[in-house]
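Q: Joint fold for the lines below.
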Amino acid sequence: MTVQDIVRPSAASAKTSFLYRVDGSASWTVGTANVIVSVSGPIEVNKREELPDVATVEIVVRPGTGVTSTREQFLQDRIRKVFAPVIVLDLHPRTLIQIVVQIVQSGDTKMLNTMTLSASINATYMALLDAGVPVRSTVSATSIIYYKTQAQTSKAAVLIDPTRTELERIEKDILSVHTVAYELKGGKIERLLLTESVGSFTEDQVFECYDSAAKICESTNETMREAVINGVQRKSRWRET
Amino acid sequence: MSELQPFAETLSSSPQLFARLLPTVYFDRYITLDPPIRPSLRSPTQFRPCRINTSALPNTFGSSVVRMGECIAVCGITGYIIDSSEAGPSALYTNVDVVGRTGPPQSELMSMSEWMYETALAANLFDPAQLKIEDTAQTLVLQAQVQLLSQMYSGDVAWAALLAALAVTRIPKAILADDEETLTADFATEPVIRFSSSETKKLELNSENLPWCINFGVMEGTGLVLADLEGRVEEVSVQGSITVITSAGNNSIQNLSISAGKSLISKDHIRQCIALAKQRAAELDSILQSQIHNGNG
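A: Joint structure:
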């Protein structure tokens, strides 16, 4: 199985600028996951959280159903790790960049959170762009799952950004789950930002996974570019009259 | 009235103050030496000394105290009985807390709790069938309470405490009472279950080689790999991190979490960390085994 075999066109879609009381908003849909993110900033920060040389970043994750639990804390922590180095924080000291992630549909089964994490990362990036928060580069993320098939081959089968139905079908046979986020510049992969790989895998498998994720992230980047172009065209419609 | 101090003395401050005010500069002073050394005087690939004690806590099925450098974690394992039909995906529930905490837990602690639960679920440490209570429709579920004792804490010490406690866990034999009955979930009756205080059976783990958690940092700029980060100075100065959960003895890895921060993390960095992690896992296995055989097991 080579990288070329398993890349499939990104089935993701994005919408921007649909919330009115915030600076920027975006929604990312992939598989059965759907996440809405709003960004406000730079805005006023309260004295307790104010930092003298950089902006403070506040990230809140709200689940689709039920109450906030430690799972949302985990997602918040990972999203912060991705974006803290990407946002140009020292351009806006003593201010707040507030990011609220609302999970509409997690797209995961009960035991996983990979689709929620990758969709949240992509939606957060689109919302930051929409809000005009200065960022150093492009970010995109994807979910890759390796599982055993009935056929007794030594190679595991792969699912990329799957739907919840697909996940439930193979749940008992999952070998490893990987969420990978890359930084891109000019549409090309620049460096690895975040990975969360869980299960049982070898060094070679995980490197192969990172290479596949790189290709997928480049394609996701294209989807983001189109969404941004559409958004700008929509906002510029008044110029045509 | 104390003597007036020389001018130069009043301007100087202690290294501890320097470390608190300017941790990245303080760290830089050490790491740019040749050969590079860390403020804790460890070399870049040197791990913290590790001490493990097991079975020290009473009233538990298993317990451990693990110390790595300045971080200390205590784990106690107990259990409770539930109806097999109500069993969730996991036979082991974990909770991490800091001793003496008042108010709601910090977000870092909550994130660590969630990470431990998910990792324990994915790590498949033991066969849950061992916990079924024979001749009944009920099963035991294990609860692991990890307490962090030091001001500094990290997930890998908490996880090590969990593994060490599980390695010595003994399940007490269930005795069905012949004088008392209880209602089950489907309104039938079953004898009440009591536990023997003397007869216990060791919990069999799926492997002798345990999946230890080992963390690394990768510096921005130089790309230097540092093993086993500890303390605020290192945490603030080295933002790229690679956390590996792996066991010795085979080439499979259970968990790989990478957060690059501003560092450029390459495949070579990852390879180096995995290799060091495997060695450390073997070392920790032997520290635990010698403690079990020399201590009271």
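Q: Anything notable?
A: Residues 203-235 of chain A form the longest helix (33 residues). The CA atoms of residues 117 and 178 of chain A lie 10 Å apart.
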